[in-house]
UniProtKB/TrEMBL annotation:
Domain Metallo-beta-lactamase span(s) in chain numbering: 18-205
Pfam families on file: Lactamase_B (PF00753)
Gene Ontology molecular-function annotations: hydrolase activity
Lineage: Bacteria, Bacillati, Bacillota, Bacilli, Bacillales
UniProt keywords, alphabetically: Hydrolase
SMART domains: Lactamase_B
Protein name as annotated: Hydrolase glyoxylase
Cross-referenced InterPro entries: Metallo-B-lactamas (IPR001279), NDM-1-like (IPR050855), RibonucZ/Hydroxyglut_hydro (IPR036866)
Keyword Plastid appears in the UniProt entry: no
Organism of derivation: Gottfriedia luciferensis
Length: 273
């Protein structure tokens, strides 16, 4: 379904995990972000792009390589792809593809589309690297922590900021890469909102926001959770560690897995033991 729309941006939200897929239209190009989840949802995005593109080139940008963010790659075979160098060199490409297959099988979904890991045409290797398409300026920033291959996008002309799996209104930090890197990415996010003019934040999951104060609150909520977990781990406070798991919205086997990953990475990086 369409979560948010104005003259330049349409944000589609899946029924699953409140996952967002974004289409940005400028005079120069169409930018698609993380088309995802169910085949009919991906097809809705594809049909929308077909209806608005005219002669404009299509760019397909991946915020990171988690399987839920790359599952719709097949739908845009003629798009120029954009991703981080770490996405391009991802060490677990086949594992991500096996998760897509497992998702289809677990949910009895018939699929004919090819299951492929994105081949990246435009590789972002430098922090702050720009891609200019006519008068449209795309500026990219590395955002490791959740995953090593994370990549923010700031669309300069429109003030649109796409953050992938950071700065959700409900989802706590999920650390599959590095807690220290996650802290640094939150610091970077704070720097960016003081440096640029923003009209809209689009996270990978949850609600968009045009309120700078609310965005700053999201950053601080993520930092607060990590700091409290760090303190609990360093103090070997199992009661507090278990209590922090209960702060996850929609408690499930998945959120338990995410919490355990956070604890494991926290112990690896910050434990006094």
């Amino acid at each position: 379904m369409i979560l948010y729309q104005n003259d330049n941006i349409t944000v589609f939200q899946s029924a699953l995990f409140q996952t967002n897929s974004t289409v940005v239209a400028t005079d120069d190009c169409i930018i698609i972000v993380d088309p995802t989840w169910l085949p009919h949802e991906i097809n809705e995005i594809k049909e929308f792009v077909e209806s608005i593109k005219n002669e404009r080139p299509i760019y397909l940008y991946f915020t990171h390589g988690d399987f839920d963010h790359i599952i719709g790659y097949y739908a845009f075979p003629n798009a120029k792809t954009i991703g981080s160098e770490n996405l391009h060199n991802h060490p677990e490409k086949e594992i991500k593809l096996s998760k897509i297959r497992q998702f289809y099988n677990d949910n009895y979904i018939n699929y004919a589309q090819p299951i492929q890991f994105p081949k990246i045409d435009l590789i972002i290797s430098e922090d702050g690297q720009e891609i200019k398409i006519g008068q449209t300026t795309l500026r990219f920033y590395h955002s490791p922590g959740h995953t090593k291959d994370g990549l923010f996008l700031y669309i300069e002309n429109l003030g649109i900021w796409v953050t992938g799996d950071y700065l959700s209104d409900f989802e706590l930090p999920i650390v599959f890469d590095s807690v220290k890197s996650y802290y640094n990415t939150l610091d970077k996010a704070e720097e960016l909102i003081s440096k640029f003019e923003f009209s809209l934040l689009v996270p990978g999951h949850g609600q968009v926001s045009s309120n700078i104060e609310e965005i700053a609150t999201r950053i601080e909520l993520g930092r607060s959770y990590l700091k409290r977990l760090q303190k609990a781990v360093q103090n070997n406070n199992e009661t507090e560690i278990n209590s922090l798991e209960k702060e996850f919205s929609f408690p499930s086997g998945f959120t338990k897995y995410c919490h355990e990953s956070n604890v494991t990475n926290m112990k690896k990086e910050f434990s006094f033991v």
